[in-house]
Amino acid sequence: MVDVSGKDITLREATAEGVIRMSQQCFELVRSGGMKKGDVLGVARIAGIMGAKRTAELIPLCHILNLTKASVDFELMPADRDARPGIRALCTVRCSGKTGVEMEALTGVSVALLTIYDMCKAVDRSMEMEQVRLVRKSGGKSGLFERVPHVIKSM
C-alpha cells in the first residue's frame, strides 16, 4: 500500500458513471417493476452502495476508507436511432481522508450495473455494460477533475 501518513486530511468526493444496454422488452420490465426477481433498481442501488463501502476488500492495496456518503442514482435511457435502451448509473462517494475515493465510486457503479445484469439475465443475456468511468473527483493535492460531458452512445 502507498504510505499516505504524510498527507493532509481533506474532503474528498468522486462520482463515476456507467451504462447497461438491454432489449426493449427487458427495459420495459425494469421500468414497470415487472421483473420476477423484484425491484431491480432498488436492489441495484443497495448493492452499489455496499460495493463502494467494501472496495478495500475487493481491490488489492486499496486503503480502507470511512465513507461519509455513498449514493447510487439511475437514469432510464429510452432507445434512440443510435442505441438500444439502457440505464445510466451514477455513484457518488465522499469522505474526509488522506486518499481519494475514485475506486469506491467506480466499484459502486460497477456493482450496481452487475446487479442489474444479474436480476435481468433471465430475460436478456445480450445486455452490455459500457463506459464505466470517473466523471468527477475533488479534494486532495491534485484538486478537481471533471470529465467534459458528452452524450453517451452505444459503441
UniProtKB/TrEMBL annotation:
One Pfam family from the record: MoaC
Residue ranges occupied by any Molybdopterin cofactor biosynthesis C (MoaC) domain in the UniProt entry: 1-140
Phylogenetic placement of the source organism: Bacteria, Bacillati, Bacillota, Clostridia, Lachnospirales
E.C. designation(s): 4.6.1.17
Catalytic activities: (8S)-3',8-cyclo-7,8-dihydroguanosine 5'-triphosphate = cyclic pyranopterin phosphate + diphosphate
UniProt-recorded name of the protein: cyclic pyranopterin monophosphate synthase
Native source organism of the sequence: Porcincola intestinalis
Top enzyme category: lyase
Pathway: Cofactor biosynthesis; molybdopterin biosynthesis
GO biological process assignments: Mo-molybdopterin cofactor biosynthetic process
Domain of life: Bacteria
UniProt KW keywords: Lyase, Molybdenum cofactor biosynthesis
Family matches, as SUPFAM superfamilies: Molybdenum cofactor biosynthesis protein C, MoaC
Keyword Lyase: yes
Gene Ontology MF terms: cyclic pyranopterin monophosphate synthase activity; GTP 3',8'-cyclase activity
